[in-house]
């Protein structure tokens, strides 16, 4: 794929913007449309573009399958962990009010963590599925 | 609301896309059209002021799903087989189900009706949730806080789906590699 200069240059320009936009969608979900699901998918789209242009071996070096598999589980664990933490602090499961001194701050923190968990899982799942599909076709 | 020209345009294009998908035999073209279909649906959601849903539909339906389907296509054939039997029974089943669904919507409240039951119970509390949650986007407070348990379940579904796909694909790859090794030995 070395000859496709235009593709390589344009995707090098685009990938950081895609990843940045994904982070914006992730953390601006409280104020505008967006959230963990959408952000995870957009983040994965950036890496899928990278795979398409720069090939599978490069992606496997940036994101080894082991790391991705860990991230898939980590997102769900982070989400459920917030629930367990609220229970340990004396609230109900996923009752974020008890996470901080003020209920609203607790809600903010809880939503932030939970959305991060969703984003991590969704992004890792999409990348893993695509990479596995791409690797099947040798 | 349905009389708005943009709705008519989007719905007409949806019908055209669906008919084209039924007629086509080239699976790559069908996948591309399904991406377009999702994008049109996302447009409809924007028109209905459901931007969060539209965003998800555009990113997941039109974006990732299309890419994953094309990746799947690399493992299978490009042309779907021409059916040998006449599709009368499936057609009857589809017509019947579609008819029943349309008949079911006749009982539903009109779009945007403030008297609809869904706007009478917890809906009012959700819309005034800023004092309770402190997050301006109501969709986020419902999704992540009021219905946090639901969303945990959804995340678990995504997790389970990934585990299933990985088990199937990796098992398939391993079997193929083993077969290749056996062939090289003989």
List descriptors:
heterodimer, A: 138 residues, mainly alpha, 77% helix, 0% strand, B: Four Helix Bundle (Hemerythrin (Met), subunit A), 8 helices, 74% helix, extended
How would you sum up this structure, described in words?
The complex is a heterodimer of chains A (138) and B (186). With 138 residues, chain A is mainly alpha-helical. Chain A has helices at 5-27, 36-54, 56-62, 65-88, 103-135. Chain A has one domain (5-135). Chain A has 5 helices and no strands. In chain A, helix 1 runs antiparallel to helix 2 (36-54) and helix 2 packs across helix 3 (56-62). The relative contact order of chain A is 0.16. Among the domains of chain B are: 1-81, Up-down Bundle (Four Helix Bundle (Hemerythrin (Met), subunit A)); 140-186. The model of chain B has no long low-confidence stretch (mean pLDDT 88). Chain B is built from 8 helices and no strands. Chain B is an all-alpha fold and 186 residues long.
Task: Reconstruct the topology from this structure.
The complex is a heterodimer of chains A (138) and B (186).
Chain A: H1 5-27, H2 36-54, H3 56-62, H4 65-88, H5 103-135
Chain B: H1 5-23, H2 27-47, H3 51-73, H4 88-105, H5 122-127, H6 130-133, H7 138-146, H8 148-185
Helix pairs in contact in B: 1-2, 2-3, 7-8
């Amino acid at each position: 794929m070395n000859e496709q200069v235009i593709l390589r240059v344009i995707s090098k320009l685009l990938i950081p913007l895609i990843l940045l936009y994904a982070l914006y969608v992730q953390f601006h979900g409280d104020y505008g449309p967006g959230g963990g699901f959408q952000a995870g998918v957009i983040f994965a789209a950036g890496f899928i573009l990278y795979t398409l242009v720069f090939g599978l071996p490069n992606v496997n070096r940036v994101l080894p399958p082991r790391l991705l598999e860990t991230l898939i589980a980590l997102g769900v664990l982070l989400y459920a962990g917030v629930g367990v933490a609220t229970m340990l602090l004396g609230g109900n499961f996923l009752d974020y009010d008890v996470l901080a001194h003020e209920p609203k701050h607790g809600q903010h923190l809880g939503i932030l963590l939970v959305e991060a968990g969703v984003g991590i899982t969704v992004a890792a799942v999409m990348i893993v599925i695509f990479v596995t599909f791409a690797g099947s076709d040798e | 609301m349905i009389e708005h020209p943009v709705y008519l345009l989007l719905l007409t294009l949806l019908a055209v896309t669906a008919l084209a998908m039924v007629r086509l035999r080239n699976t790559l073209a069908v996948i591309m059209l399904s991406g377009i279909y999702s994008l049109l649906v996302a447009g409809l959601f924007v028109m209905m002021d459901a931007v969060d849903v539209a965003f998800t539909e555009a990113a997941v339906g039109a974006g990732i799903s299309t890419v994953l389907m094309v990746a799947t296509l690399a493992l299978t054939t490009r042309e779907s087989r021409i059916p040998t039997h006449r599709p009368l029974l499936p057609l009857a089943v589809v017509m019947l189900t579609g008819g029943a669904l349309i008949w079911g919507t006749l009982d539903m409240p009109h779009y945007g009706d403030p008297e609809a039951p869904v706007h009478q119970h917890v809906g009012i509390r959700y819309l005034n949730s800023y004092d309770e949650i402190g997050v301006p986007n109501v969709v986020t407070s419902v999704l992540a806080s009021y219905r946090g348990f639901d969303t945990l379940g959804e995340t678990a579904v995504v997790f389970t789906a990934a585990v299933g796909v990985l088990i199937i694909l990796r098992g398939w790859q391993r079997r193929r590699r083993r077969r290749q090794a056996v062939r090289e030995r003989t």
